[in-house]
Amino acid sequence: MRRLAPMNTSIQEPGVEIRRDQDATSSTKLHWPEYAIEATLLGLFMISACLFTMFFELPSSPARLALPSPTIRRVLTGAAMGLTAMALIYSPWGQRSGAHMNPSVTLTFAWLRKIKPTDALFYIVFQFVGALTGVLLVSTIARMSLADPDVRYAATLPGRLGVLAAAVGEFVISFIQMRAVLHFSNHPRWNRLTGLVAGGLVAMYIALESPYSGMSMNPARTFGSALPSGIWQGFAIYLLVPPLAMLAAARLYVWGRGASAVGCCKLDHSPKLDCIFCGMKGNIR
Questions:
Q1: Which pTM does this prediction carry?
Q2: How do the pLDDT tens digits run along the chain, 285 residues long?
Q3: CB 268 within 8 A of CB 195
Q4: How far is CA 100 from CA 8, 40, 68, 93, 166, in A?
Q5: Are 178 and 105 in contact (CB under 8 A)?
Q6: How many domains does the chain have?
Q7: Does residue 120 form part of some domain?
Q8: Residue 162, domain CATH
């Protein structure tokens, strides 16, 4: 296998002047704003997940009464969460931190040497904290509704086919997700579509795959619901399978395209914002 490319590889967009940051101390600098942003982004995602799950699944909800079909409710929930993911990725905060919002994504980019180990560690810690905080915030306001048996803190659980089907489902959707992120984020013409593709896949997974695995792809997301609810069923699947699947997708991508084909680990590498990963500063001409 080819050696992995240096961390400062990035794609420069047309019409944008990029200059490299030569600060010799940057390798040891802690990026607290980016860590806090990752926590905030995943916290907002979990707040959205809890609210939309209550809106569509709570028995007393007008949406639940008006939409008796669980399939239709699942499709609408998927659309809402897909749009939430897109909004967070393309937000100024998402553009600054890279909008990983997932330890599996961060671990994969750490293996690809696109994020420093220290940054990766803090990203993951803050992602877990953010997910838990988001669920707890909703719980303080709507404890009984969030704990309803049809809502269950928006927890991700294996479906009726059991843990094996859940594990297979998590592997497949996590593999496809990372493969799509790498393909689009490193394409010179389509890289700005990465957030749309990632959010669209989230919507599709919730609509089609969630009956089998609960659709997590994200250890922190599952942890955020599991701790306050006490629902730990299948937790090992959600902790281990998504990162393994995304690492497998990255390894396959590198084998096929070469390590030099992997640029920055931001899902949306906005030219307007400095980048802590590839050491570049963006200035609009």
A1: 0.89
A2: 444 444 444 444 433 433 444 343 345 589 999 999 999 999 999 999 999 999 999 999 999 999 999 999 999 999 999 999 999 999 999 999 999 999 999 999 999 999 999 999 999 999 999 999 999 999 999 989 999 999 999 999 999 999 999 999 999 999 999 999 999 999 999 999 999 999 999 999 999 999 999 999 999 999 999 999 999 999 999 999 999 999 999 999 999 999 889 999 999 987 778 899 987 766 432
A3: yes
A4: 18, 12, 35, 11, 23
A5: yes
A6: 1
A7: yes
A8: 1.20.1080.10
